[in-house]
Design a protein that fits this description.
The protein is of the alpha/beta class. It has 10 helices and 6 strands, in the order H-H-E-E-H-H-H-H-H-E-H-H-E-E-E-H. The strands form 2 sheets. The protein has a 4-stranded mixed β-sheet, covered by helices on one side. Strands 1-2 form a two-stranded antiparallel ribbon.
Length: 220
């Protein structure tokens, strides 16, 4: 979540020189900006009075992470938990494991994009053996995972797979005549307008321009 802070903490744990305290000049406190005003916050009781040393630096890192990952968002989490449990609590909620609940809320992370090809339907003259469609899937399967997920956002509004799996998504690719246009996604219906581009290079350029300059709804 915070790569810069994470790298700083790793360097802190790796530094073994005897001048540690003079070099780091740290206490068990953090500085936070509250609407333009910087405030020192103790991460343990009276933390600003306790120096970070070679001997207690692991404890400091543990307290630092706990503060930013838990204590900072404690009020927000408790409000969320209260609302969530008010709606979804009870015996049914207790029947789920944490992973099952995550899939219910956030969707699946098991991407099988070969299956996406098999479930796709075609309209307006396209079919599974059409040269443009074969070119499209050849290009699509060459993409890295992040780009494929961006395509899902472009087409469906989300980069997640519903809990029932990718087969529960109905995707349609339809032909449009003007091959000077970018591909267009009708997100509410999972329909892709794909012009008959003459070659894979042009198709890739047009599709990447479309999918890398869009934002989804963040819905499953």
């Amino acid at each position: 979540l915070h790569p810069v802070q994470a790298n700083t903490l790793r360097q802190l744990l790796a530094y073994n020189e005897p001048d540690f305290e003079d070099t780091m000049c740290l206490t068990f406190s953090v500085m936070r900006d509250f609407f333009g005003e910087v405030e020192e916050i103790d991460i343990i009781p009276n933390g600003r009075e306790k120096s970070v040393t070679l001997d207690n630096r692991a404890e400091y890192v543990k307290c630092y992470v706990d503060y930013y990952m838990n204590k900072v968002v404690q009020a927000q989490y408790e409000a969320f938990a209260h609302g969530f449990l008010y709606v979804a609590g009870g015996k049914v909620f207790e029947a789920f494991h944490a992973e099952e609940l995550m899939h219910m809320v956030s969707g699946m992370q098991d991407f099988n994009f070969k299956d996406l090809e098999t479930i796709t339907e075609y309209q307006n003259g396209y079919h599974a053996e059409h040269p443009v469609i074969k070119l499209f899937w050849e290009m699509f399967h060459e993409m890295d995972l992040n780009t494929k997920k961006r395509f899902l956002i472009f087409l469906t509004g989300s980069d997640r797979i519903p809990i029932h799996g990718i087969h529960s998504i109905k995707i349609i690719i339809q032909k449009v005549k003007d091959n000077t246009r970018l591909p267009v996604a009708h997100t509410c219906f999972n329909v892709l307008d794909l012009p008959p581009y003459p070659n894979k290079e042009i198709m890739k350029e047009k599709l990447l321009t479309a999918i890398l300059n869009t934002e989804g709804f963040g819905l499953v």
